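cron nightly-structures :: item 1 of 1
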Amino acid sequence: MSELKKKINYTVVCVDEFADRYHLSPKEAFIYLYDHKGIEFIKEHYDVEHTLSFDDAVDDLTIICRNNGGVY
């Protein structure tokens, strides 16, 4: 599998996990993460984030989004 496909798959799973934690639809979660720099964070820090558990990744996304005006 190419590196790009791995990053895309990882991003999709992170969005789904974030959606599950905060009771959002995947679409709502993606829009929220995009608007509050979470998607950008995943893209920039994939090399480290993909080595963590998904719970840790969602915790990190929560911190990033709150730092960028989010409520979750």
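cron nightly-structures :: done
The helical segments are 3-21, 26-35, 38-44, 46-49, 54-67.
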